[in-house]
Write a structure and sequence with these properties.
- Strands 1-2-7-8 form a four-stranded antiparallel sheet. The protein has a four-stranded antiparallel sheet with strand order 3-6-4-5.
- It is about 35% helix and about 20% strand.
- The longest helix has 23 residues.
- The chain has seven helices and eight strands; from the N terminus they run E-E-E-H-H-H-E-E-E-H-H-E-E-H-H.
- By secondary structure, the protein is an alpha+beta fold.
- Helix 1 crosses helix 2 and helix 2 crosses helix 3.
Amino acid sequence: MKIIFEAEHNNMSVKLYETQTNSMNMGRMVGIKDCTIITFPYTYKYSDYHSFKNSQEFLMSLLAKKLRGKRNAQSYARKIAKHAKMLDIPVEAHELFIETAMQDYLSDEYVLLPVFANSNVDIASPVLSKKPMSGYISKQVGWAYVARSEVKDKDERLDDFTRNFLKRTIERELEELNALISGRDYYASFEIGGVKYNLPIIYADKASAIGMVKAYFERISKNQEILEILTFDTAVEYYNYSENLFASNIANIPEEFKSTSESNAK
């Protein structure tokens, strides 16, 4: 265990510790799952359980749900393939074209992001991310998604705020998964006037863990009543990192935070 960040302000101080735990290789078996992660082939460390053989089979299953039937999904896929030929797209690019078209068509029902595995000689397990990482050998190995029906009522659309929120939710869950696989986690200890407070364990990469604690400490130094919650508040910390970016919390975020976050994102 070692201190990787510390700060002081008046009668307050914070220390962030990095630890090694026995959670190594537990992966998706640990923690709250706020999105679905699918990797090929299925590996319990990285993926929620599924029986899909490849990416196209998985996307076809989502299409079948949206189009209310496997035959309708197959008909739509054939139309995309025919369109690719009409556009003289090289054969080797057909699969990518079809997947991209499917992803666009599904975007009103799902927030769907690719999952890449990034590896090099210095790490024991691949690092998962939503895009290739510089300095690594990267390969897309699956998808992560949240369905509109999980966070919105039947007739509600996926507005820009919700979409951005869910993308960040998926990113944080990939960070947490990477931390679990590596057996690395963090926890913060606050001291105010000689009284110590400990925050819940943080599963994330080092930069995110430091960012979360730094932003939280800055807010507590201005308003110590936040300590009564002893957690990271989703709405307040939305753009300054958050431990609890849960999709199920979207409906509970006050409108003033939504409008502020949307304007900051532009």
